[in-house]
Design goal:
Helix content: 40-55%
Strand content: 5-15%
Number of helices: 5
Order of helices and strands: HEEEEHHHH
Shape: flat
Strand order of the largest sheet: 1-2
Structural class: mainly alpha
Amino acid sequence: MVIVKLAIVLFVIAVGAFYVDPVNWHPFAPFGYTGISFFGHTLFGQTGASGAPVGVLAGAAIIFFAYIGFDSVSTHAEEAKNPRRDVPIGIIASLIICTILYIVVSAILTGMVPYDKIDINAPVSNAFAQKACRGRGASSMSVQSPGSLPCCWS
């Protein structure tokens, strides 16, 4: 299953790279680099319409929780030949690989579509619908991105 997921992510990167427009990256950080709050009170940076802080640090604080679960690699320690060496390598390697893939997919999506036009509920399929599949049956796209990509060649 992991191989299928990696193949889909690499496919999105490979196909989406052809539709990147560097103009979409200006301004690079439209809400600034701050966005720190403490118990609901914004200390630094701007706030959004809901009162939540916005900015690079606010986004980093939210995405931090996506990394919960990488410690599950350590549950396979009893299957490793040399757990003192293999488990830390496995955890660090998985963190690095996932971080790189996350950054690249984010760069591809924001390069394809301006940040304010990305659909939060279905960012990948919507970005391809807006950019790559325009005029090629995109109205029949499914919510799942792997199912929506074939419309680009139909």
